[in-house]
Amino acid sequence: MKLSAFWKGLIMAVVGFIATTLSDLESFNLAYVAISTIAFTVIYIGKNYIWPSTSEGGVINWQDILSGLIVAVGMAISSFAASIITTGAIDWKALAIAVIGAIVGYFGKTFTQTSTT
Q1: pLDDT (tens digit, 9 = 90+) per residue, 58-67?
Q2: Which of 22, 33, 54, 82 has the CA that lies 20 to 30 A from 97?
Q3: 75 in Cβ contact with 33 (< 8 Å)
Q4: The overall pTM is greater than 0.90
Q5: Does 117 map to a domain?
Q6: Range of 65's domain?
Q7: Counted domains in the chain
């Protein structure tokens, strides 16, 4: 795994998550954003350590589709936990937007990369 591709993907995922989260919150909840971002970052780093992206630029292979699923589930779990911890309830719309943002960010990074990571 190339380290620069890893950091690029991580930054894209975190920025994409924060942007989608902040764009939809009716009131800013710093604890929610912090908990879910930290949890997602840990999940993303762990996923890439164990199972890095392997697609060539402009192509998505089955391993990366499964990686995208892991990223989506990781985002759902981190957003769900952050929502329960900070508000005691689940904001399904915010959770869906966070998961979609993570998927788009992950596949956007994977599809546009110039070499195998």
Answers
A1: 777 788 888 8
A2: 54
A3: no
A4: no
A5: no
A6: 3-112
A7: 1
